[in-house]
Amino acid sequence: MPTTNQPIHEPHKIKTVRPIAFPNLEERKRNLSAARFNVHQLTPSQVTFDMVSLGTSAMTQEQLAGQLIGDEAYAGARNFETLNEVITRVLGHTYVCPTHNTLGAVKLLLRAFAKEGGSSLPSNARGRVDVHAPRGIEIKDARDRKDPVFTGNFDLDRLRSLIEESRPPFIGGQAFADGQHPFSLANLRAVRKLADSFGLRIVLDISRVIENAWYIQKHETGLSDRSIADLVLAISKTAHVILMDGAQDPRSNTGGFLATDNPADHEHFMNDVVVFEGLHTYGGMAGRTMEVLARGLSEMCDEVEVQWVMYQTERFCARLADGGVPVERGCDGAYIQADEFLAQKAEHSAHAVAAALYETSGVRAMAQGLVGRDAYLPVQIPRLAMTNTQLDQVADAIIALHGQRDRIPSLDTETKGEWHDQLRFRSVFADLDSFEFDCDPYIIHTLEPIARTTREQRLRAIREAGYNTFLLRSADVTIDLLTDSGTTAMSTKQWAAYDAAIPTPGTSDAYLDFVSVVKETYGYDHILPTHQGRAAEQILSEVMIRPGQLVPGNMYFTTTKLHQELAGGVFADVIVDEAHQPSSDFRWKGNIDLGKLEALVKEKGADGIAYISFELSVNMAGGQPVSMDNLREVYAYCSKHNIPVMFDATRAVENAYMIQKHDPRFHDAPVRDILREMMLYGDGCTVSGKKDYLINIGGLLAFKDNAEWAKASEAKIRVYEGGVRDGGLPSADLAAMAQGMREMVDDHYIRSRVEQAVRLASWLEAAGVPIVRPTGSHAVFLDAREFLSHLDQDEYPAQRLAAEIYVETGVRAMERGNVSKGRKPDGHNYRPQLELVRLTLPRRVYSDDHLRAVADGIVRLYERRESITGLRFTYEPAELRFFQGRFEPIS
């Protein structure tokens, strides 16, 4: 059934990303000059946002997986059988002829039905003039412009006249004609009736059919209760022949087909396809392309996804119109009226606007097709590939340019041509104000659908999980904020490195690259990969700790503390007092209190201290950073007393960004350089690579210059992990880790990552929800003690709050309080000062719209907080009880 509510966030999360470039003004000028002011000549690596929709969509993970299901058989490919079945099921036509794209389909169509010259073709679209005019076929405009909504309707009287005048070979129709004009289902059916009366076929281009179906569902009387899938099938079945561009609605990068229920027409197509395209069971497509196309066709009518696509489009067009930009709305973006945009009339106005837009912002919008159709500059949205924040800023860049339109220079033609891409221009660079983007530095490459659950389903799920969010099935979770560990969306560059890595039990190229990147990033000499962070913690603890020694640290972390204790050590918390005060605004809550440390050294002696366990961006304190001054002071003190300093550098890059942002001395320093200095003030580190390194598995143990510690650790790695040059990881994971380290120190990336947490915190604080202040780097922490102040700490308020957040919103969060801290030897709970729920933000996975929905749900919960009761254990493991423990509500 159709979804009538306005979407509140994407019905998917990000699976993989494609990093984008942010060329500065001088680079953009050089690029534009080399392109002779025709943005067609720019490459994607020179462009920040490429506002075109053909073949630029994000794919689903199922489509991406389909690339490896390709049956590259020359004849009788299984992928063609799959494609045929899907087209019959989704579009209702039995006979399918594959083509390499729609140009291939048009070629076969015209050979079957039209004479090569002297023909005319009535149509509601002008977009095919480009391919018909060179064949001597004239497009006769039959579009009715009277309906204010269905501007793509056929004028039935004119259509009848055109048929009677020229006896065309068929009637050409286009769903959402020229990207701007939808038709009604009633009008299409009337055209079918008229075509049948003259014995003519309707040939319908359905490349943008889901958008047209959405307009019918939204605006056509009596059809609001019909699903998108039903309407798509009805549109398709009304035509005698359909053709489709796989690079549009199915979100493939290429591909196309013709389909019909008429076996005689199909025979025409199949006889010609082997001459011009390829064998009739692949038609110029690779097997993988047919598989991706088939999966995209299966998915394209998903009601919620269609609503999101059209919501983004309508929102984008409205923002431009509200900003005073002369635009017409389209099904795939906005169409700028170029002549009206400019302060004065100019030849090639669309090119002038496009060149100025690129110069000021790095955004590319292109005039396409034959020269002479210059009225509009399409600004198309790559389907599902951009967030609303990015689209808002693209719109704002266009609005800013419109505000200085009187300064946009004209273009003088240097090289003429029939097609827009052939033109070259001379011009000058005007004094235009640049637009600076402050958004995620990537577009979406692949997406993963997320759960769509009801409150009743979520209540059943949390009961089955024993009110422990760790025990929920991910399939039941809409937005997963349990952890940022291993939940990253990797980049296309990381996947390329992963796939290219050559496996070997010996020394791999990936290992050498990994070592090189770590040394360059941290400045450490001894590099030991591990399968993940806790393995590095275990080895470090066993190598460095003698039984009975203290391990002072800036707040415990669960696995770190456990490994220290298993090695015979005793953890001692020496973090500053402000870290235990959620409402304190002290900026550097991760700092070590040097006075506390000195007292321990005096009490135990330096020999009684194994090492300092120094965490950067302290997780359990709320992602709180350590200041550069504190790093220097602690290291100076420990060096004087011969006490090693060992970093937990899992979120060191986030800490470096905090220093850049909040320490005026480092405002202009790149994060890369700040990180290198931070690591100078330690003797070694452990890293869970599943955080900063932007990967799904992997870890690191590294020492600055102590070969003895490294040798002892290597012996442990051989027993516990694998080879010392792989740490139990395949070379592919080492390669992905190395590339992730290159990406993690990009200033655009790390700013967008940390500032997302700041925005989430601001929405919660504005509604009075108690959170740990100031906001940390990787998460927002709710103060469960304050949120559920009517519950005793032994009723586990943080555990209950995490469970209630899931029931209310479908969001999975994590308890970090009494349950996590565990019990004392006497059996009583530790009752830590901090009783928190962590909303952890996976890297590059969720948009601001997702997080706004999270905030709104938590605010609703806060408004009924008095009705929430506590929990009691029904099953309590002896160690790390927060992973497997089960609870029930206290009546």
Automatic annotation (TrEMBL):
The keyword Lyase is annotated on this UniProt entry: yes
EC number: 4.1.99.1
Enzyme class: lyase
Keyword annotations of the record: Lyase, Pyridoxal phosphate
Necessary cofactors: pyridoxal 5'-phosphate
Domain Aromatic amino acid beta-eliminating lyase/threonine aldolase: 50-370, 480-855
Keyword Protein transport listed: no
Source organism, top-level taxon: Bacteria
Gene3D superfamilies recorded: Aspartate Aminotransferase, domain 1, Type I PLP-dependent aspartate aminotransferase-like (Major domain)
GO molecular function, one term: tryptophanase activity
Entry similarity comment: Belongs to the beta-eliminating lyase family.
NCBIfam families linked to this entry: PRK13238.1 (NF009709)
Protein name: Tryptophanase
Species the sequence originates in: Eiseniibacteriota bacterium
